[in-house]
Amino acid sequence: MDHSKYLEMYERYLTEEKKASENTRSSYLRDIRQFGDYLDTHEEIDFDEATEDELCNYIDHLREIGKSVSTVSRSIASLKNFYSIMVIKGFVEENPTGKLVPDKITQKLPEILTSQEVDLLLEQPKCVDMKGYRDKAMLELLYATGIRVSELISLNVDDVNLNAGAVRCISHDKERFIPLYAAAVKALREYMEKVRPQMIADEEERSLFVNVGGERMSRQGFWKIIKTYQVKAGIKKSITPHTLRHSFAAHLLENGADLRSIQEMLGHADISSTQIYSQVVKNQIQEVYAKAHPRA
After folding, report:
1. CA gap 111, 264 in Å, rounded
2. Which domains does the chain have, with CATH numbers?
3. Do residues 127 and 138 lie in contact, with contact meaning Cβ atoms separated by under 8 Å?
4. Burial class of residue 210 in the structure, from the number of CB atoms within 10 Å of its CB (0-12 exposed, 13-18 middle, 19+ buried)
5. What is the pLDDT of residues 192-233, one digit of tens each?
6. Handedness of CA 233, 236, 241, 246 (dihedral sign)
7. What does the pLDDT read at residue 215?
8. Interatomic CA distance for residues 264 and 219, integer angstroms
């Protein structure tokens, strides 16, 4: 997608109106270009179409790939400045960066679902038609492995080994193998053997998950699917495409898994990105204590 008119506008503003230094211009423009690259590869939309959800997903993505808190905070500051100018210049009506709060000291903990909420969400797809079988397999696989949504929709048929009960995930030129629990294997087997052959538009199609047109599922397509099932499940928490990933990590940690193993399964480059789940679990324990202890 061609983002040039927005980038040129912003560069003119920084140079002619703000009269920013070369370093400031370079830093701001680099951050916005990186966001543009993300929109191309993950959302397939332009700057003027991005909503609060896409911006929150992007910041979540930066944290997922191991960017430091200071880098994330700088990116948020750049996006806020960029979109304030987009509003002033009339390219967007409202600034979508309202939920982004730069904080170089603390990092917002991810929202996770309880085990009961996960069960409720996974029960929503009904295996009465092809979409139901597909959606069931997608949600089970996502919670079984904790992979990113971008990795989920990039999977090919050859990446799944049902007999071994494992999936191969390749991201950032790194390969990792993640085990699957029995229910996920069952859901995948039913989808791959009974449903997918009827859904694909071309027998040469290698994408594991396809849309109703028989082509690779998009991130936006999956976003709509998970929001639909959130409503059906009656879950009030704000569920994003990363919620099951966060829940996967936190639940493993709650049940005794070590951080290094979780780091490997999540594909985090730096264990500091994984350690945030320790704080999530710690906070949950404190909440349970405060509610349940008779003298708390």
Report:
1. 21
2. 4-88 (1.10.150.130), 115-291 (1.10.443.10)
3. no
4. buried
5. 999 999 999 898 999 999 999 999 999 889 989 999 999 999
6. negative
7. 93
8. 24
Give the tokens for residue 224.
Answer: 């709509």
- If you average pLDDT over every residue of the chain, what do you get? 88
Q: Of 143, 172, 145, which is closest to residue 161 (Cα–Cα)?
A: 145
Instruction: Give the Cα-Cα-Cα angle 191, 194, 197 (nearest 5 degrees).
Output: 90
What tokens were used for 66? 């191991």
Cα torsion 65, 60, 233, 235 to 10°: value is: 130
Give pLDDT tens digits for 82-127: 999 999 999 999 999 988 876 554 556 678 899 999 999 999 999 9
No. of helices (H) and no. of strands (E), the chain: 14, 3
**Token code pair at residue 79:** 């996006």
Q: In this structure, what token pair is assigned to residue 246?
A: 């966060």
Q: How confident is the model at residue 167 (pLDDT cuts 50, 70, 90)?
A: very high
Question: What is the spatial distance between Cα 155 and Cα 166, in angstroms, rounded to a whole number?
Answer: 13
> What's the whole-model pTM score?
0.62
Q: Around Cβ 256, how many Cβ atoms within 10 Å?
A: 6
Helix (H, G, I), strand (E, B) or coil at 42: helix
Q: Can you tell me which residue has the tokens 């859904």?
A: 199
